[in-house]
């Protein structure tokens, strides 16, 4: 398989396959998260490359069970309908997010509140984390956090997109800090200066947004004048071939704190 690397570590329980795909100038990270014992897997934010996702799962002996969507921006959802139909997969997301997609009702799984899900052998916690968009969700799958564009390793997603709100994002970040274990690995929707997969306690220590303690300061920083107002080129045509990278996550503490 081209461009793949494997870093197996003793005790790893949740496997993560990362596909980097989309626009070369602003690629998306699409993930397959899987239970290493059973091979049960979910796909998070299939923005592009549905064929590559199916092939990557097949090559690893994984069984795709569901799609998890963090929010409705097309660079995170463009391939959802195709992949869902191709593999007959249910799609989890909030109502406004699912309404942006053309899915048959029997494949929709609507999140209306924080929820613990069981998808095959995978234990998943869905946390409503509005701010980047009003319908944003973060997923904890096994011992990994998939926050979409709510939280990056280095910062947070823009809030000036339709229905974005800095106050909501501040409260969502506070919820993540209360709910996500320190040992969870963080896999956001985009990668900037630092590699994804960092432990959450390290992200908390270095991400400036998570260090802002008041809503007033957080909102002022989110809305600072030099910051862009729109996500770049949502929905434009992808122009890069998907790259694949295998992560392996060491098991440390699987006990989830109570969702706040
Ligand atoms: Fe986004």
From TrEMBL:
One Pfam family from the record = Lactamase_B
**What cofactor does its activity depend on?**
Zn(2+)
Q: What is its EC number?
A: 3.1.2.6
Which Gene3D superfamilies does the protein's record reference? Ribonuclease Z/Hydroxyacylglutathione hydrolase-like
Is Magnesium among the key words of this record? no
**Example GO molecular function term?**
metal ion binding
Keyword Secreted carried by entry: no
Q: Which residues form the Metallo-beta-lactamase domain?
A: 27-190
Q: Which UniProt keywords apply?
A: Hydrolase, Metal-binding, Zinc
Protein name (record): Hydroxyacylglutathione hydrolase
Q: Which organism is it from?
A: Sagittula marina
């Amino acid at each position: 398989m081209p461009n793949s690397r494997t870093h197996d570590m003793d005790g790893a329980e949740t496997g993560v396959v990362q596909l980097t795909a989309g626009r070369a100038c602003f690629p998306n990270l699409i993930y397959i998260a899987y239970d290493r014992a059973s091979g049960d897997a979910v796909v998070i934010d299939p923005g592009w490359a549905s064929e590559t996702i199916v092939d990557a799962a097949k090559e690893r002996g994984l069984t795709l069970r569901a799609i998890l969507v963090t929010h409705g921006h097309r660079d995170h959802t463009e391939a959802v309908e195709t992949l869902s139909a191709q593999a007959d997969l249910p799609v989890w997301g909030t109502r406004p997010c699912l309404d942006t997609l053309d899915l048959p009702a029997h494949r929709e799984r609507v999140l209306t509140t924080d929820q613990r899900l069981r998808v095959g052998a995978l234990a998943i916690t869905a946390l409503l984390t509005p701010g980047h968009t009003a319908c944003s969700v973060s997923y904890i799958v096994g011992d990994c956090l998939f926050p979409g564009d709510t939280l990056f390793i280095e910062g947070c997603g823009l809030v000036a997109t339709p229905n974005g709100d800095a106050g909501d994002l501040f409260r969502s970040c506070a919820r993540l800090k209360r709910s996500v274990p320190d040992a969870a690995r963080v896999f956001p929707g985009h990668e900037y200066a630092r590699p994804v997969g960092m432990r959450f306690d390290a992200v908390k220590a270095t991400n400036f947004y998570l260090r802002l303690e008041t809503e007033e300061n957080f909102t002022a920083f989110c809305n600072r004048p030099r910051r862009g107002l729109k996500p770049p080129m949502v929905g434009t045509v992808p122009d890069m071939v998907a790259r694949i990278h295998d992560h392996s996550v060491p098991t440390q503490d699987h006990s989830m704190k109570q969702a706040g």
